[in-house]
Design a protein that fits this description.
It is a single chain. The protein is about 30% helix and about 25% strand. The longest helix has 15 residues, at about 65-80. The strands form two sheets. It has a four-stranded mixed sheet. It has a two-stranded antiparallel ribbon with strand order 3-6. By secondary structure, the chain is α+β, with helices and mostly antiparallel strands. The chain has helices at about 20-25, 65-80, 100-105, 105-110, and strands at about 5-10, 15, 25-30, 35-40, 45-55, 60.
């Protein structure tokens, strides 16, 4: 890959998009090389860089298969189960706590 054109923030030409913008359009880069990059200047630090891809060469997002959907549902359900009490917390357990709120703060539960 040679050098790619560099544009300033919000000055990229039409027809180019970031991965997130492509995803919002229901597209994916599909193996194409980076077409350009956008740089957002920051004070006293290196600029933020976003890579741009051609919208015309982008391919549609692959549809979710039943097997992928089942695996994703299983993974999300596992994130809700407390490792201490083994109950479904009803929410995704915060990684900072590592357990559901009642298990993490048992004294507050009794005081209430």
């Amino acid at each position: 890959m040679g050098t790619v054109p560099v544009y300033r923030w919000r000055l990229a030409p039409d027809g180019l998009a970031t991965k997130r913008q492509l995803r919002a359009l229901g597209l994916r880069p599909g193996g194409q090389d980076v077409a350009a990059q956008v740089e957002r200047p920051r004070r006293r630090r290196e600029p933020l860089v976003a890579y741009l891809y051609s919208i015309e060469q982008a391919k549609p997002v692959r549809p979710m298969t039943p097997a992928k959907q089942a695996a994703l549902a299983k993974a999300n359900a596992a994130r809700r189960v407390c490792p201490e009490c083994r109950r479904d917390a009803g929410y995704v357990i915060p990684p900072t706590l590592g357990m559901c709120t009642p298990c993490a703060f048992p004294e507050e539960q009794r005081a209430a």
